[in-house]
Design goal:
Elements: H1 4-17, H2 20-33, E1 44-46, H3 50-53, E2 60-62, H4 80-94, H5 103-107, H6 121-129, H7 131-143, H8 145-151, E3 166-168, E4 175-177, H9 178-188, H10 208-215, H11 219-225, E5 234-238, E6 247-251, E7 256-258, E8 265-267, H12 283-287, E9 292-296, H13 307-322, E10 328-337, H14 339-358, E11 367-371, H15 375-384, E12 407-410, H16 413-416, E13 425-431, H17 443-448, E14 453-456, E15 466-469, E16 475-485
Antiparallel strand pairs: 1-2, 3-4, 5-6, 7-8, 9-10, 10-16, 11-13, 12-15, 13-16, 14-15
Helix pairs in contact: 1-2, 6-7
InterPro entries: E3_UB_ligase_RBR, IBR_dom, Poly(ADP-ribose)pol_cat_dom
GO molecular function: NAD+ poly-ADP-ribosyltransferase activity; ubiquitin-protein transferase activity; zinc ion binding
Protein name: PARP catalytic domain-containing protein
């Protein structure tokens, strides 16, 4: 068992040195051994450099010594004696450099460290080395002012330069600069939804918060991708006030947020003006709009307590129940609300019920089906419903009519994965299969068809994974699901 005196001394040392990691460990030992301790704070701190410069010796100095506290950007402190011993030979050998590295960081192999706060570097040098050194450094910084600015940035893994701010851009740790990211976004923002790392051979997704940090000063560029970025606990939106229309970051942990520009109160769920007393779904009638997209959150208590949480569970269960690939999971869910399409869908159900009665069948049963496309097509589908290529005016059969004319859907998410272009998004729809039958090969045959859908299988599969519906009224967009691989 560790002695009480040893625990007290160790805890006191950790607190005074602000070694928070060790503090937790020592407190755990104190609780385990039920030791009563009394801590005596001290105004002394230990020099981080003494151990490396003087073969393990330690030196303490006062916390109130301005020129010996928090010298390093990572919190290492060095006493005046160590700083002089380090800087004199360094300056004699290399002259006044643009950046001095921390002694403790060098010995601990911590890269890109900076000994002084750049704005106070001259004052530190005057105090430590005297006025002569101060004047020499001042001249050096004036001559190399532009180089001093650029050298403070990390090296970009793409262009290998240090001229622009860099941020870690992917899970592999690649750091990319502002200019490289800006050039990439300019080239691909129209066709890409899943922004990928710029480094050859790295297929990882770019961190959206990195894109935001680097591009935010550029008003034109950030506006191109603002609605495509996903930040944890934040919803990037635009103020619903037409006279404002400024970009906003809404905290999804709050139900309402206030626009800092115009003062309007905003619902963080539907990003419309706050609507006390009515749900997000009723905002369609209030705002006289044709569709609404509501971001759904998973249940916070393990089981659903609100309508939004119930809808999230429905969408996730529908996806997870039919997906056959174990490494694909649901990342986020949007609920699609379109009153007009819902009314058309219910009218079609009533028609199928009447037709089924004539044959003694119940054709009112619905099922979930899946549809994937270009991301830009989803909003069009959600607002105007599905269109049948080759039948509806202005719409061609983009992927052909191998299984006849109609609205093409998949019975499992796996088949739709092949068509999820420009991002990992897929639509889950309610559908009314009605009477199943053969495919229809012409517009005329489609008009005369006595059945309502065609169930078939794609080449190489052992089960029916494609279902073609003969009217768009039979398919109702319900959820827009973002999925991801467990490896990402």
């Amino acid at each position: 068992m560790i002695s009480r005196e040893a625990l007290v001394a160790e805890l006191q040392e950790c607190i005074n040195q602000k070694d928070f990691t060790s503090i937790r460990r020592v407190i755990a030992d104190i609780i385990r051994y039920r030791v009563n301790v009394t801590i005596t704070p001290t105004d002394k701190v230990r020099c981080s450099s003494h151990f490396y410069l003087y073969q393990g010796m330690n030196n303490e100095f006062s916390k109130n010594d301005l020129y010996a506290s928090f010298m390093c950007s990572r919190g290492h402190r060095s006493c005046i004696e160590c700083l002089r011993s380090y800087l004199y030979p360094l300056i004699q050998k290399k002259g006044f450099m643009q950046r001095f590295e921390c002694i403790a960081c060098i010995n601990q192999h911590i890269p890109h460290s900076q000994l002084f706060d750049q704005n106070l570097q001259l004052e530190y040098i005057r105090h430590i080395l005297g006025n002569d050194a101060y004047e020499q450094l001042e001249r050096a910084l004036t001559i190399n002012e532009e180089e001093t600015k650029t050298d403070l940035y990390d090296q970009c893994a793409k262009c290998s330069l240090r001229q622009f701010p860099c941020q870690t851009a992917c899970v592999n740790g690649h750091k990319l600069c502002l200019q490289c990211v800006a050039d990439y976004i300019t080239d691909v923002h129209k066709s890409e939804e899943k922004f990928k790392c710029l480094i050859q051979g790295c297929n990882r997704k770019l961190f959206h918060d990195t894109i935001k940090k680097l591009l935010e000063p550029n008003e034109d560029l950030i506006s191109l991708v603002w609605n495509k970025l996903t930040i944890p606990n934040m919803r990037l939106s635009v103020c619903p006030n037409p006279q404002c229309n400024r970009r906003l970051e809404l905290d999804v942990r709050e139900f309402k947020e206030t626009c800092k520009y115009c003062g309007i109160i905003i619902c963080t769920r539907c990003t419309k003006a706050a609507h006390d007393g009515t749900s997000c779904y009723n905002q369609i009638e209030v705002l006289n709009t044709d569709a609404l997209f509501v971001d759904l959150e998973p249940p916070k208590h393990g089981y659903p307590r609100t309508i939004n949480e119930e809808e999230y569970i429905n969408a996730k269960y529908s996806f997870d129940q039919f997906i056959k690939q174990d490494d694909i999971l649901v990342k986020s869910v949007k609920l699609i609300v379109n009153r007009k399409l819902e009314e058309i869908f219910e009218q079609r159900r009533k028609q199928l019920i009447e037709e089924g009665k004539k044959e003694g069948e119940d054709w009112s049963k619905e099922k979930y089906v899946f549809h994937a496309s270009k991301y830009e097509n989803y909003e069009k589908i959600c607002r105007g419903g599905f269109k049948i290529g080759g039948i509806d005016p202005g719409f061609n059969a983009v992927n052909g009519v191998a299984h006849g004319f109609g609205v093409y859907t998949a019975t499992t998410p796996d088949f739709s994965l092949n068509y999820a272009k420009e991002g990992n998004w897929m639509m889950i729809c309610k559908a009314l299969p009605g009477k199943n039958g053969n495919k229809v090969n012409s517009p005329e045959e489609l008009m005369r068809a006595t059945h309502h859908s065609h169930l078939c299988r794609s080449p190489g599969t052992r089960y029916d994974d494609i279902q073609v519906f003969f009217t768009s009224a039979q398919v109702l967009p319900k959820y827009l699901v973002e999925f991801a691989s467990r490896r990402e």
